[in-house]
Amino acid sequence: MQPTRTLPTGSRVNGALSRRRPERVVETIEYAAFVRRIIRAYSRRVADGDVDALPAMVRLASELDAEIGNAVDGLRRFGYSWADIGLRLGISRQAAQQRWGDR
């Protein structure tokens, strides 16, 4: 089993992989909370009668999906396996590879 370490965000990182890159503090939890607040605020604006903004909001879903794919690609280049990615998402390695592999 590979040694792991825990980042300040609470994420566990494979120690063998993390030594390849300089350590830096990333406030991932706080950043994700900020993004969720922005998305909720945007949906409230649309829900308050801005029907013309609805298509732009739907495009955000597509853009988010593409960026998730980019994040997975980056994790793979960094050395994470499909099993590592699937484990974090609560899916099998096969499901992760089918969803984001060969893009």
Give a topology summary:
Layout: E1 4-6, E2 12-14, H1 15-18, H2 28-47, H3 54-78, H4 82-89, H5 93-100
Antiparallel strand pairs: 1-2
Topology as H/E string? Answer: EEHHHHH
Domains (count): 1
Q: What's the N-to-C terminus distance?
A: 30 Å
Rounded to an integer in angstroms, the radius of gyration calculated over CA atoms is: 17 Å
Helix content: 55-70%
Residue fraction in strands: 5-15%
Mean pLDDT: 85
Tell the overall outline.
extended
Largest sheet: 2 strands, antiparallel
Instruction: Provide the structure class.
Output: mainly alpha
Structure description:
The chain contains 5 helices and 2 strands, in the order ββααααα. It is mostly helical. The protein has one domain (4-100). Helix 4 packs across helix 5. The protein starts with a strand and ends with a helix.
